[in-house]
Amino acid sequence: MIFVEILRVAMDAIRANKLRSFLTMLGIVIGVGAVITMVALGEGAQRAVDEQISALGTNVLTVRPGQGMFRGVRGGSNARLTMEDFEAVKAGATTAIVQLSPEMQGQLQVQFGRSNASIRILGTTPNFADVNNYTVQMGRFFDESEVQGRRRVAVLGGAVPAVLGVEAGDVLGQMISIRNISFEVVGVLEEKGGQSWFNEDEQIFVPVETAQFRLLGTDRINSFKVVVESQSAMPVAMVQIEEILRREHRLSLTKESDFWISDNAMFLQTRQETTQTFTMLLAGIAAVSLLVGGIGIMNIMLVSVTERTKEIGVRKALGASRNAVLLQFLLEATTLCIAGGILGVAFAYGASRTLAQSAGWEMAIAPQTVGMAVVFAAVVGVFFGIWPARRAASLDPIVALRYE
Fold it and tell me: Contacts from 216-219 at CB under 8 Å and sequence distance 24+?
């Protein structure tokens, strides 16, 4: 009953100065809201990275040409990969390697009706969609016979019809012109979303033999992807690919490889660590405002102790113990922080929704983040409320009653 009475007195004191109480809570509201919003931004970025890497596949290796290093000097400007390299890896693949898909790229002019656009053309094999987790929306993907026959068929990325100013159904089965060469559109892929510095849905896919001999006039490939049987087989597959390519490129033991192999799983781990560090940095910066809010509460509570000195003297003269006075002021500070924390949660949800709708950012507010923010706000209230509460509790009743 004594605790309930003390709590009631504390609430009455807060209600007696509504505007000052609200302004005091404002620092906590902003601090809690900022912390939750920043963590939500980091969590959203983390989920986006996870989805992107999952779409690429965590058991996929990507082989790209790269400049070799010799005695600390970067060289090898003629570093390249060719279809012969791809075929060598394909022929020497063991059971650990399930699928391979080359990528031969070029930016070419595409025409359809009155529309004209510069679009990325990618020559590849029929298993490209499986390797890269694409789904055919309409029509089909080209087959192996069309690759061997160097047929002029094309599959459009999900965003290409919009670039050409038409609906996907209107261009399916029609002829488009790529570098003034007619191609039949046999399929349209579903949109997958941009996963790098360019939009991967704004691509046109053609058979690799067609790209090599009819469009690009080169046997160089930009990269090829390798699907490995399992995550545990990745190191073995990487070693096998490296041995085959070094043999094909006739590299001695003293020379660095003029190609590089990237592992999507390693890329995922690196991105996760980077995102987590970024999230903690943002949350740390936002938490500073919580501390500032706590200092504000301590300042106001000290002012309140000074203003209510005579009241404290009366309460002590009527028998209020030191602990009762201390608890009253501590409850006032803690209540202000908890109320500010609850308002801060509402502010965070509103800010997150606004950012998601206006800026298109992915936001993810975890329940544990909300709970931790509110608990931290309560801890701030207790920490910064102790000094004013101790000061009020230590007042001498006779001195307090004489205070003017």
Answer: 216/104, 216/106, 216/121, 216/123, 218/104, 219/82, 219/83, 219/84
Q: How many CB atoms lie within 10 A of CB 117?
A: 13
Residue 235 backbone dihedrals phi, psi, to 5 degrees: -60, -40
**What whole-number distance in Å separates Cα of residue 124 and Cα of residue 61?**
16
Report pLDDT digits (tens) over 209-223. 999 999 999 989 999
pLDDT value of residue 58 = 64
Nearest to 222 by CA among 135, 91, 101, 96: 101
d(CA 227, CA 241): 12
Contact assessment for residue 19 and residue 343, using Cβ atoms and an 8 Å cutoff: no
The phi, psi pair for 121, rounded to 5°, reads -105, 130
Residues of the chain with pLDDT under 70: 1, 49-58, 67-78, 193-198, 264-272, 275, 282, 286, 403-404
Q: 3-state class of 200 per DSSP?
A: coil
Within 10 angstroms of residue 97's Cβ, the number of other Cβ atoms is 20
- Other beta carbons within 10 Å of 9: 18
How big is the CA angle at 116 (ends 139 and 143), to the nearest 5 degrees? 25
pLDDT in the model for residue 176: 96
Q: Which of 357, 371, 280 is nearest to 39 (CA)?
A: 280
pTM summary value: 0.60
Torsion, CA 279, CA 284, CA 290, CA 296, rounded to 10: -150
Instruction: Please name the residues in contact with 267: beta carbons below 8 A apart, sequence gap of 6 or more.
Output: 53
Strands (E), 113-146: 115-124, 136-139
| Residues 212 and 146 sit within 8 Å (Cβ to Cβ) | no
pLDDT of res. 76: 46
Distance separating alpha carbons of residues 24 and 324, to the nearest angstrom:
23
